[in-house]
Amino acid sequence: MVDTQQPEALAIIGVFLSITTIFAALRIWARVIGCKNGIRWDSYMMWSDGLIALAYALVATESYASIKYTLYTWQGYHLVDIPKLSIADQVRGQKYNLANQLLYNPILALVKASVILFLLRIGGAKPIAKKALWTTFVLNLLLAIAIFFADAFQCTPFNYVYDYPMMDLTAQKAAGADSKGQVNGVTIKGGKCIDQINFFLISAGLAVGTDLLVVAIPTVIIWDLKMARRKKIAAGAILSVGVLVTAVSIARLIIYHWRFSPKNHDRTYGVGYTVSSMEANLAITTGCVPSLGPLVRRIAPRILGSTGNYPSRPTPSGYVQQTGEGNEGKGGQVSLETFGARTTGWKGSRSQVEVEAWSSDENILPPEPEQIRKAVNVDVTFSDASSIEGRKVQGKPAF
Questions:
Q1: Pairing between strand 186-187 and 155-156?
Q2: Where do the structural domains in the chain lie, given as residue ranges?
């Protein structure tokens, strides 16, 4: 029986596409729930969702191309077990290979752009974060365009990248080459290409670089926010879930370095080449996770906790702590202890206190209209108080 890993390769491609489809559907469900609950579908959200939808369409196409490439080029089989392929089958297989190459980088770029717009929506109030996000957005766009065209025109003439079996054979016949396709020890080719191996490795390295930027920026957004440690860790984990994609990107770089190594004499055997499809699908999956807040709150409300609701309870000053939402812009009196301040020994004064607003459409961080931090005018009133030692009991001096 012939040893092959092709079934495993096809299963990997199909499973990851199925997972991506599920998360894409969950994202749509979460959007429907959010809109029913009054979440505003603003331009940032619209563009973020649109880019993810386009990326999903491309990744479905790429997965189909990967399956066809696997079948036509006998991936998963040992080289010695692969029958001699016709020129037509070789050309067809390389066309699907080119399709994979051209789709891979745009998918990742679209997902990163979608995530950046999402982060701009929830964390755009921090100037340093906003500048970093827009800089990364432009860098990601320029890099995607550059890699796409370099990939598309990596060979001269253009069609040599996939039609090289036929073009080489035609050129060798015209030059009177021997059975090895050589004339005076020189292999005759029908076109020329850039150093494809170095190009693939360098572009993969640049993709890892932009991945790291997108993963690191959420840390800047939540670094100095005043929120419970548990919620800060949860928010950071949700916003930085793309680190999984970065890990796969690094793994892809290592795998492809070996795949193209001169020491690898059996390139078709194995499932390592499916890492590109895995990475593209995983990118969309993780890109959908931060937008699932409304859905998670419906299914398991305790995971993200309540947003903006604080229990009412009496304070030492005699006033009742009200919810932050109930008093914003309504002139309600709130004890300063609502914000964790000590009031003992203070005299009555009017103060402006900076507080954090934690209710957001995504239930992670506040949307841009709330500016993450906002000033709330509060009236702090204190009654004169004296210590027990200083009080006088009626008719008797205090001892």
A1: unpaired
A2: 6-154+194-303, 307-399
The average pLDDT across 93-113 equals: 94
The DSSP code for 42 is: -
**Per-residue b or e along 82-95, where b marks 16 or more CB atoms closer than 10 Å to that residue's CB:** eeeeeeebbbbbbb
Query: 254, 290, 281, 244: which is closest to 108 by C-alpha?
Result: 281
Pick the CATH number of 6-154+194-303 from 1.20.1070, 2.60.40, 1.10.20, 1.10.10: 1.20.1070
- Closest CA relative to residue 213, chosen from 277, 140, 158, 152: 140
- Chain mean position to CA 180: 48
Q: Where are the beta strands (DSSP E) in 152-247?
A: 155-156, 182-183, 186-187, 192-193
The DSSP code for 321 is P
How buried is residue 16: exposed, middle or buried, by Cβ count under 10 Å (0-12/13-18/19+)?
Answer: buried
Residue 304 and residue 360 in contact, taking contact as beta carbons nearer than 8 Å: no
The single residue listed with the structure tokens 């709130």 is 334
Q: How far apart are CA 101 and CA 150, in angstroms?
A: 11
| Interstrand relation of 186-187 and 182-183 (parallel, antiparallel or unpaired) | antiparallel
Nearest residue to 119 via CA among 244, 27, 236 = 236
| pLDDT at residue number 305 | 52
CA distances from 358 to 146, 162, 311 (A): 40, 54, 15
* pLDDT value, residue 142: 94
DSSP codes of every residue in 342-368: --TTPPPEEEEEEEE----TTSSS--G
Alpha-carbon dihedral angle through residues 137, 141, 144, 148, given to the nearest 10 degrees:
170
Task: Name, in order, each residue with C-beta under 8 angstroms of 22's C-beta and a sequence gap of 6 or more.
Answer: none
130-183 tens-digit pLDDT? 888 899 999 999 999 999 999 999 999 999 999 999 999 999 999 888 888 888
pLDDT in tens, 20-71: 999 999 999 988 888 887 777 778 888 999 999 999 999 999 999 999 999 9
Of 300, 323, 327, 321, the C-alpha closest to 310 is: 323
Closest C-alpha among 286, 219, 277 to residue 246: 286
